[in-house]
Write a structure and sequence with these properties.
It is built from four helices and six strands, in the order αββαβββααβ. It is of the alpha+beta class. It has a six-stranded mixed beta sheet with strand order 3-4-5-2-1-6. Strand 3 and strand 4 form a beta hairpin. The two termini are 25 Å apart.
């Protein structure tokens, strides 16, 4: 799966599970860590954990892809590493505090075609 297809598949799953404020940033020119950062918010710590769990479950089920790593399950910010795409799932307070959109503002915002 191409990095472009991967970021869109991940975003679609997050959207289907009611993640909020889903944004993708193309980071190829800014870092060797990944091609994309995908950011999303949950409404509570339980929702954040459920989003991370469902993302891993659905990606394995639909595409046969498992994350390379998951960090932060005990916090309000869970990072899920899919190699070319690093997913950040936050509670609103942590997302506002760390403000990754500002830190990675040199990266190109990616248009995601998500259902409302």
């Amino acid at each position: 799966m191409t990095p472009e297809a991967l970021v869109k598949a991940l975003a679609a799953i997050l959207d289907s599970k009611k993640a909020q404020d889903i944004k993708a940033i193309h980071t190829t020119e800014q870092t060797i860590l990944s091609d994309y950062f995908l950011l999303a918010s949950g409404t509570s710590s339980t929702h954040v954990k459920a989003l991370a769990d469902e993302l891993a479950f659905e990606m394995k089920k639909q595409h046969g892809i498992s994350p390379q790593g998951v960090e932060g399950r005990a916090t309000g910010w869970i990072l899920i590493d899919y190699g070319a795409v690093i997913v950040h799932v936050f509670q609103a307070e942590q997302r506002e505090y760390y403000n990754l959109e500002r830190l990675w503002e040199d990266g190109e915002a990616v248009a995601l075609e998500l259902e409302d």
